[in-house]
Amino acid sequence: MKVGIDLDEVLVDFMKYFVLFYNSKNGSKVTRNKISEYRFWKLWGDSKEETDKTFNEFYKSSLFKNITPIKGAKNGIKKFSF
User: Fold this and answer.
1) I want to staple 6 with a disulfide (CB 3.0 to 4.6 A). Which of 1, 10, 16, 37 is the partner?
2) Are 35 and 26 in contact (CB under 8 A)?
3) Are 40 and 46 in contact (CB under 8 A)?
4) Distance (Å, whole) CA 70 – CA 75
């Protein structure tokens, strides 16, 4: 059996770290509670290409590399191992 697991906002607090990165990069003050959808270019007025570029930069950043699992995530995953 194969099991797929959604990481962002399920096992890790992805948006917390992405918002920190985005604000640092753009000098903005975006907050998580202002994010109502994942088509970020619509929220921020950027182009889709610019938004993709920002995410690619985030994926290469130390913030992304140091995302930690939310409380209980590791134990939850262990329950799926056989």
Assistant:
1) 10
2) no
3) yes
4) 10
